[in-house]
Amino acid sequence: MRSLQKLGFFCILLFLVSPVLSSSSQEHVKGASKHKENIHKMISHKLSFEITLHGFLLWASMGFLMPVGLLAIRMSHKVECRRRLRILFYVHALSETLSLLLSTAGAVMSFRNFNNSFNNKHQRLGVGLYGLIWLQALIGIVRPQRGSKGRSMWFLGHWILGTAISLLGVLNIYTGLQAYHEKTSKSIRGWTIIFTVQVCFFTFFYLFQDKWVYIKKQGVVLANESKRSTIDQVVLPREKQKEVAPVESC
């Protein structure tokens, strides 16, 4: 009889306590899932920040500093003042050195924090560019002296490789924007438009400064010819005009 009473008391106690245990267990599961969700959000936010920082470093390196250095050394070909020539050379060297350092920082950041399976164009092109940038830096350091036999071949190779790196760097920025969109599902239209405008500006400036001296010379030649023709018509007689008539250049 007593055993039955104890069994009944134990069943009643278990019936009363079971809801409390069940609610505490559910709260524990909800707390664990919420904690995991917060950790996932923190990881996603950190990964998004690292991807953005990686993209900014590579844009500053490939998309800005490298074209600036290319424009500076291109402008030096038309400069006769030694002081301005030295300034443009230092701008070229400094911008290319900073570009190398920033691209190295972006590459190290990519290897450490991202899943580099090298199954897309952006990662493969990035690895190739990283090797070419260091090769270009070494070529720039071991340049021959001006006037030596190998200077012309060195200059040709340095110019071709530098131009190729700049073009591939711009292409890799576009592929990086596409990879950023696929990774974060964020819109890249605004960044693509801004970068395209920048590329067009650098291209126009490159072509314009290359022809600026030629354009100025064309204006001077035309002005001199017009002035000379006017003087000949006013001062010289017709016989002399025929004798001193300017020969038409090819």
From TrEMBL:
Cofactor list: heme b
GO molecular-function terms, A-Z: heme binding; metal ion binding; transmembrane monodehydroascorbate reductase activity
Matches recorded under InterPro entries: CYB561D1/2 (IPR045150), Cyt_b561/ferric_Rdtase_TM (IPR006593)
Bilayer-spanning residue ranges: 56-75, 87-111, 123-142, 154-176, 188-208
Ranges for domain Cytochrome b561: 10-216
Signal peptide stretch: 1-22
SMART domains: B561 (SM00665)
Pfam family, one: Cytochrom_B561
Protein name: Cytochrome b561 domain-containing protein
Compartments reported by the entry: Membrane
Keywords (A to Z) from UniProt: Electron transport, Heme, Iron, Membrane, Metal-binding, Signal, Transmembrane, Transmembrane helix, Transport
Coiled coil: none
Source organism: Rubus argutus (Southern blackberry)
Topological category with respect to the lipid bilayer: Multi-pass membrane protein
GO cellular component: membrane
